[in-house]
Design goal:
The chain is α+β, with helices and mostly antiparallel strands. The protein has one domain: Beta-Lactamase. It is 30% helix and 23% strand. It has 7 helices and 5 strands. It has a 5-stranded antiparallel sheet with strand order 2-1-5-4-3. The longest helix has 9 residues. The radius of gyration is 15 Å and the shape is globular. The two termini are 22 Å apart.
């Protein structure tokens, strides 16, 4: 992947994304949102409220090690706790260096590809996990049953 983070629009909107997830921050203690939509044709959309982490992800070529970078047709609807990810330790350890931890990924396949919502909090807030798992239906309000994202206007 070749990307220039200094000139890419999705790095410029991280503050807007941070504002968008304010309800999740206030009510659940979630501090990190990364959104990825991978299309069958190989194109993608990505944004996050964590621009520095995203920049690091690309610069260190961590996408080469991510299970979320495979053909989007291989995914089924799922909720994946980061603590249970095997083979993802390199990425998770590096995310912790940016104070991103204790997360969950919502996987939403669709006819054109697959959407991923990565929600996390800080390293010192492991108790947040039980709170947002108890109210998972509220986090799912960022998209509807058809997989059309409610959190962005890029679909």
């Amino acid at each position: 992947m070749l990307i220039n983070p200094d000139k890419h629009y999705f790095f410029e909107i991280s503050a807007d994304i941070d504002e968008l997830i304010q309800p999740l921050k206030t009510h659940f203690g979630l501090t990190s949102l990364a959104y990825q939509q991978s299309f069958i044709d190989g194109s993608e959309i990505r944004f996050s409220n964590q621009a520095e982490w995203t920049r690091h992800y690309y610069e260190q070529e961590l996408y080469k090690y991510s299970m979320f970078e495979i053909d989007p047709r291989q995914f089924k609807k799922d909720r994946i706790l980061w603590a249970g990810l095997t083979g993802h330790q390199t990425i998770l350890e590096q995310a912790r260096a940016f104070n991103i931890d204790h997360g969950i990924t919502f996987v939403e396949p669709g006819s054109e590809g697959c959407e991923f919502f990565f929600l996390g909090t800080t390293r010192d807030r492991s108790q947040v996990m039980s709170k947002y798992l108890s109210h998972i239906e509220l986090e799912e309000m960022f998209y509807d049953a058809k997989g059309k994202s409610r959190c962005c206007a890029y679909n």
